[in-house]
Amino acid sequence: MAVDVFIHPTAVVDEGAVLGAGAKVWHFTHVCGGAEIGEGSNLGQNVYVAPTARLGRNVKVQNNVAIYDGVEIGDDAFCGPSMVFTNVMTPRSHVSRRHEYLKTRVGRGATIGANATVVCGHDLGEYAFVGAGAVVTKDVPAYALVVGVPARQIGWACACGVRLDLDADGPRAEIACTSCGAKYIREDGQLRPKE
Fold it and tell me: Rounded to two decimals, what is the model's pTM?
């Protein structure tokens, strides 16, 4: 185990779990053997991390989140309180589907709001922003802002988290964040930082 790791006395961290330096594991959380938690990541109260789950550096997981097998979370991502990951498309209690777990990838810097659900088998691009209570049923592009049930894109979000005011028509548009000044280009239905 790395240095400066904090594990609350009520938490359970199984042998074989890998926790990076500065990681914090809070009340009633269970990290299974084989799980990987990156440096500086923070697991809130009542979090479950399955054996094949992978979390990057500085990931924030709020209370009451289960990170199941097949979930990979990139650096600097945020999982809001009581958000939900799934891992099987057609669950039945009497049918074992452990061999059907689908991968879910959360890109670097992405945010998943409180009580949102991410249906398995979908990717959230880097710095994507999923609003509270949304249900993600398809891939979410990088920097996309999605809300609703099912989640639909209503705009774009800066890496700093602020909604971008991007109303320009046409195949290409440029925008600067009103909060941090970062500049972006929208082209071919995608948003990318301006170099």
Answer: 0.95
